[in-house]
Amino acid sequence: MATVTVRDVVKKYGELKVIHGINLSIAEGSFVVLLGPSGCGKSTLLRMIAGLEPISEGDVLIGDRVVNDVHPKDRNIAMVFQNYALYAHMTVRENMSFALDLRKAPKDEIERKIAWAASILNLEPYLDRYPKQLSGGQRQRVAMGRAIVRNPEVFLFDEPLSNLDAKLRVQMRTEIKELHQRLKTTTIYVTHDQIEAMTMADKIVIMRNGYIEQAGSPLEVYDNPDNLFVAEFIGSPSMNLIEGRVEGGRFVSKGGTAIALPAGCKAGEGQAVVLGIRPEHTHPDPAGALEARVGVVEPTGPETHIYFELDGRDICAVTRERTGVKPGDPIRLRLDADRIHLFDQASGKAIR
Amino acid sequence: MQTSRPVQILKDILATLIVIVFMFPIFWWSLSSIKPYTAIFNKDGPVYFDFQPTLQNYEVTLLGKSRIESNLESGGTSGAGGGSSYDSRETILQSIIVAVGSTILTIVLSTLASYALSRLPMRGKQHFLFWILSQRFMPPIAAVIPIMFMFRDMALLDTLTGLIIAHTLINIPIAVLLLKSFLDDVPKEIDEAAMIDGATRLQTFRRIILPMIKGGVAATAVLCFIVSWTEFLLSLYLTTSIRTLPVKISTFVTSTGTEWGFITALGTSAIVPSFIFILLVQRHLVRGLTLGSLKD
């Protein structure tokens, strides 16, 4: 177990800068998720921590040691790849023992560790099989087994679940989280799936275009997004955003809809802002101040997503009631005033 | 897709015909090798099965008997020529040494070279690859005289080592390109996983990558073996006392006549070692050896 510190790290491919001086500190034993759309630099950052990509500027520290020029094999890390990268010509047992063999670990220790990993991951019946004889979930577990037998200081996961089907993904998500709770090894996990990030992380680091947009606990980034990007990226269905300006202490949209702002709002008079409100804080309510017409109704079972148009933007309301509204129905809406987020239109930054 | 019955029958007939067309020369070759002299040279037309089979051609080429000895044993009449110049036992041994030696050398050098070309960063890699391929553009006949002089200066003329080196040089370009394509199919994450597991480059190559492309290595080895086994031109120029099979066979065309019996017998025998070699490696020639290391 160790802390991981990323200090002013820059990654350049020739002239092209893909990571722009990132700072990040990861506490011992925590589970950190690097989240972002593809091309945001999250995998590159992970690979720099792993030592698979050279660092152009800045330092990466594992524990107290700067590892910039340390070979991956000497960093005492383990990595699980998106495509598992199992050794096809080796059995499950051999796949897991490879690293220990290279270290010339004693035979009985290898046996013991493999038995231990296999029991944690339910791989006991498959130890003598080859990867091609296993299902996707089992291969994923072998890749994890290969990582845990080495008892590394840091686990690195590079989108490990994206090749699994939906049901298995949910199951493996729980298994990885359980594994972490059991081993308490510092874990860095890369994904573009915000549900994975929300459910697994102690800390989510949201990245875009080589910058960190926000880092914090899942509920922190969900409840208090720092900027428009984070507000839109986290949450499904995503946050409703309406453009407008502040007039007389109220928000007035481009189409003229007025919405009362919570007391103590720091937006200046006349400031061009974007109002954000999560679908679950948008309620169909006959006494509501907003009026709209229902576009699409999506029942998911536990809740119903009702889409409607407001000033030319699609807005979503989530309700657990059985409202029985149909497309075309007029509907009145109420917004939870204390859940309204305001963002500066020009900079995208939250106004708090 | 389900094909209808008549279509399937038609396909089978066509396939059979094609196989017959391609197999016929081999069949005719081996048939001629057990024909007596009179059946090979029949003025009335080709003889198919209407002859007394004889092993005389094999006895002379493979057992080193003179034709007279062979004839006396089987009670036949003596033909022209005769003597131990048709004894090909040493030739076969030398051919095997050259083919196996050059195949091993080619594979050792090419796997390492292609791994480097597939994995390591290198300035102008594309140009280098093209240059490797371009080594095969020139017909060997254009280079054979300079090669001969170089081999003479290095005292490699008429040595097995020289011939092994020469055949390795012919095979390396194709082997490198072929192996590189197999290596390119192995995802680089495998190397990275091995590296993180604590393996050095060489350990990664030897213990992880090489076993994963053994199908490709086997296929390449077969190709190299066959090229060396059938190579004529360089063998002819670079050797005098050492004779590989194709060169030896060419000497059976003599000023007093062409020894079709010996040519076909030795030719048929020449199929056997390459056949055995292919049998040995063919179980590795299965596609999808990397199956299972990846997602699906």
TrEMBL record, chain A:
Compartments, record wording: Cell inner membrane
Membrane topology: Peripheral membrane protein
Domain ABC transporter span(s) in chain numbering: 4-234
Keyword line: ATP-binding, Nucleotide-binding, Sugar transport, Transport
Gene3D superfamilies: 2.40.50.100, Nucleic acid-binding proteins, P-loop containing nucleotide triphosphate hydrolases
UniProt GO cellular component terms: ATP-binding cassette (ABC) transporter complex, substrate-binding subunit-containing
Annotated InterPro entries: AAA+_ATPase, ABC_transporter-like_ATP-bd, ABC_transporter-like_CS, ABC_transpr_MalK-like, ABC_transpr_MalK/UgpC-like, Mo/tungstate-bd_C_term_dom, NA-bd_OB-fold, OB_MalK-like
Any single GO BP term: carbohydrate transport
One Pfam family of this chain: OB_MalK
CDD domains (alphabetical): ABC_MalK_N (cd03301)
An annotated Gene Ontology molecular function: ATP hydrolysis activity
Entry's family note: Belongs to the ABC transporter superfamily.
Protein's recorded name: Multiple sugar transport system ATP-binding protein
Automatic annotation (TrEMBL), chain B:
Residues passing through the membrane, by range: 12-31, 92-116, 128-149, 155-179, 216-240, 260-281
Taxonomic superkingdom: Bacteria
One Gene Ontology biological process: transmembrane transport
Cellular localization per UniProt: Cell membrane
InterPro entries attached to this UniProt entry: BP-dep_ABC_trans_perm, MetI-like, MetI-like_sf
Cellular component terms per the entry's GO annotation: plasma membrane
Gene3D superfamilies per record: MetI-like
Membrane topology, from the record: Multi-pass membrane protein
Residue stretches making up the ABC transmembrane type-1 domain: 92-281
UniProt keyword list: Cell membrane, Membrane, Sugar transport, Transmembrane, Transmembrane helix, Transport
Family recorded in the similarity comment: Belongs to the binding-protein-dependent transport system permease family. MalFG subfamily.
Functional summary from the UniProt entry: Part of the ABC transporter complex MalEFGK involved in maltose/maltodextrin import. Probably responsible for the translocation of the substrate across the membrane.
Protein name as catalogued: Maltose/maltodextrin transport system permease protein MalG
